[in-house]
Specification:
The structure holds two protein chains of two kinds.
Chain A (H helix, E strand, L loop, with lengths): L3 E13 L3 H9 L5 E13 L3 E5 L6 H8 L7 E6 L2 E2 L9 E4 L11 H11 L4 H14 L15 H12 L6 E5 L7 H16 L3 E6 L2 H7 L2 E6 L2 E7 H4 L4 E10 L19 E5 L2 E7 L4 H10 L2 E10 L2 H12 L9
Parallel strand pairs in A: 3-8, 3-9, 6-7, 7-8
Antiparallel strand pairs in A: 1-2, 1-4, 4-5, 9-10, 11-13, 11-14, 12-13
Helix pairs in contact in A: 3-4, 3-5, 4-5
Chain B lengths: L1 H19 L2 H22 L4 H26 L1 H7 L3 H5 L5 H32 L7 H25 L4 H16 L1 H10 L3 H13 L12 E2 L2 E2 L9 H28 L4
Antiparallel strand pairs in B: 1-2
The chains are: A alpha/beta, B mainly alpha.
């Protein structure tokens, strides 16, 4: 716990319902009048790492981040950013933030948005101009920099949001669902940008529910479900190194090869097979003798196309955490 | 200078929004239409052209100024919260009071622009009749401007917790009560019921005395005043402006206290 640039210590954020409709819904469903968005959250984000904050929709990711940014008051516990307790106004001078589903002043152009943000950081005019131009070029908006934001697609807004978040050349970058709304190319570009920020010595904390993004770039992951922290650590520790199953693809060498029986050639019970035309996709369970199975398959006049041992995926870990928590993702939000 | 820089950045952004969303143009065009009507009515009157132009133009200046202050001001914070644009600003090293003050200053800039445009039109309308903007007219313009800034502060206060419609409505209601303060005091002296008497006294004390800014045709500085004859002194205008400043400061201060406690979910 020595180099935490962001720390949550038993952070609890509950708030009152916003609308009468929500109030009635909660009363009818027997839920309390307060929304328990985040409860007893404790973990830290270390300097220079990319930390992913994973959770299903409504798990409390955005509430946690908004509490960190001083937009919501914590009910109890605390959160600190660069050593300062939130709302941490001074620390925010060294933090860049991209809100979820970026909502910006649509009457501004991207350059004007960056300029406004630069002004809020009290950055001088010449530096603001240079940084805005550099950042908009970096996020691929150089050609659209003078267009009003209301004419932007969601992906372009996300890029403009990333540019404004970096206007103060921050030490810490906090991104709430930065890949949401982006196409595969856009997501890759954002992932590359996040990695380049880490390479430049910055700390990145970002929330997402897109598992592949996390697996590709995160040093550590915190999993939140139903407002409670389920697990935190490097993916290598969270994910079991054990091989959970092996996938084998077989092709019939002659017409009498009985691919439909391929599951039965495995001595360990639990093997499954799916036959598509002249190919069989076999899943061997954990602990199966793969060598013996492959020998048996060759004897049955098949060709072995591929053999793939599978470890636990982040998706499986995530689904397990959600199932064990007993909530269907939405936590306490009625 | 740092807080002032942030307040100014938010103010300029608010002003830019008002200009680009074209709300202001619609109001200005409508007010200009009223002024044209004033010129037309003046032509139809019997040797009272200048009087009619002055009366209708100054009335339009006040009414449109108050309408913009009440309804644009009433939506000032709600729009930021509803559209979540507030996340971008408050996640920067900005105090919440700086945000609210920035929004108010931006609204003030918008109202100033409206006033400059409308007074310019008044000057043109008068110059066509060979009359120039004199000190009396400028005193009334200054009074109306002070009043509109008070109304804008009240609207900003209501917008810190109410929806735009409610904030606009509350502001207009308080404006009407404020204009009637001397009448409420008079009525309170005549009612027998002690409860009604006390209630009216409280209303007269709590509401801003906006009658100070619309004295033409009534009493001020201990004499009858009118923009067409003898009007108030500059000292009266300065005192009324100072009163408005105090009232605006109080309204904004309470608004800040409420706004600081809010969660932006």
């Amino acid at each position: 716990m020595s180099d935490g640039v962001i720390r949550f210590d038993k952070l609890t954020t509950h708030f009152r319902v916003k609308t009468i409709k929500e109030l009635f819904t909660r009363v009818r469903s027997g839920a309390g009048l307060k929304v328990r968005a985040v409860t007893d959250l404790s973990f830290e984000v270390r300097r220079g790492e990319i930390m992913g904050f994973l959770g299903p929709n409504g798990a409390g990711k955005s509430t946690t981040i908004r509490t960190l940014m001083g937009l919501i008051h914590a009910t109890s516990g605390s959160a600190t950013m660069l050593g300062e307790t939130v709302p941490a106004r001074h620390a925010r001078e060294r933090v860049g933030f991209l809100p979820e589903s970026p909502y910006f002043y649509d009457f501004l152009t991207a350059v004007e948005l960056c300029d406004l943000c630069g002004r809020l950081f009290n950055i001088d005019a010449a530096t603001r101009r240079k940084r805005a131009a550099d950042l908009l070029d970096r996020v691929g908006l150089a050609g659209a920099r003078t267009r009003r934001l209301r004419t932007y697609s969601k992906g372009m807004l996300q890029r403009a949001g990333l540019a404004q978040a970096l206007m103060n050349d921050p030490e810490v970058v906090i991104l709430d669902e930065p890949m949401s709304g982006l196409d595969p190319i856009g997501r890759k570009e954002v992932r590359d940008l996040i990695v380049s920020l880490r390479d430049a010595g910055k700390t990145v904390f970002f929330s997402t529910h897109i598992l592949s993004d996390l697996e590709l770039i995160c040093d550590r992951v915190a999993i939140i479900v139903g407002g409670k922290l389920r697990d935190v650590g490097p993916l290598s520790r969270l994910l079991s190194p054990k091989i959970t199953h092996t996938e084998v693809v077989l092709r019939a060498r002659s017409g009498d090869a009985r691919l439909a029986d391929a599951a039965g050639w495995c001595a360990t019970p639990g093997a499954r097979v799916r036959v598509v035309e002249d190919e069989a996709f076999v899943t061997l369970p954990e602990g199966a003798d793969v060598d013996a199975y492959l020998a048996a398959a060759l004897e049955q006049r098949t060709t072995i196309t591929s053999v793939t041992p599978r470890k636990q995926s982040l998706e499986e870990l995530f689904v397990r955490e959600v199932e064990q928590s007993g909530v269907a993702g939405a936590g306490d939000r009625a | 200078m740092k807080p002032l820089g942030r307040i100014w950045a938010i103010a300029l952004n608010t002003f830019r929004e008002a200009i680009r969303q074209k709300t202001l143009y619609v109001v200005a065009a409508f007010a200009a239409g009223v002024k044209l009507l004033a010129v037309a009515l003046g032509e139809m009157s019997l040797h009272e052209e200048v009087r009619v132009v002055k009366d209708i133009s100054l009335g339009a200046l006040s009414i449109f100024g108050v309408a913009v202050a009440a309804f644009v001001g009433g939506a000032l914070l709600y729009k930021e919260i509803d559209k979540k644009t507030i996340f971008t600003v408050l996640s920067k090293p900005v105090h919440r009071h700086e945000f609210l003050l920035g929004k108010y200053v931006g609204l003030g800039l918008t109202l100033t622009t409206l006033f400059v445009a409308l007074v310019g039109l008044l000057a043109i309308a008068l110059s066509l009749r060979g009359v120039s903007l004199d000190a009396t007219l400028m005193k009334q313009v200054a009074l109306s401007y002070s009043e509109v800034l008070v109304v804008a502060a009240i609207a900003t206060f209501f917008s810190s917790f109410a929806s735009p419609f409610a904030a606009g409505l509350f502001t207009v209601a308080l404006f009407v009560v404020g204009r009637l303060v001397p009448d409420i005091v008079q009525v309170s002296k005549k009612v027998d019921n002690p409860l009604t008497h006390a209630a009216l006294r409280v209303v007269a004390r709590v509401a801003p005395n906006l009658h100070l800014y619309a004295v033409s045709g009534g009493q001020a500085d201990g004499k009858e005043v009118s923009i067409h004859a003898t009007f108030v002194s500059w000292s009266y205008v300065a005192q009324a402006a100072a009163y408005g400043l105090l009232w605006s400061a109080a309204a904004l201060l309470i608004g800040i206290v409420i706004f600081r406690r809010r969660d932006f979910v």
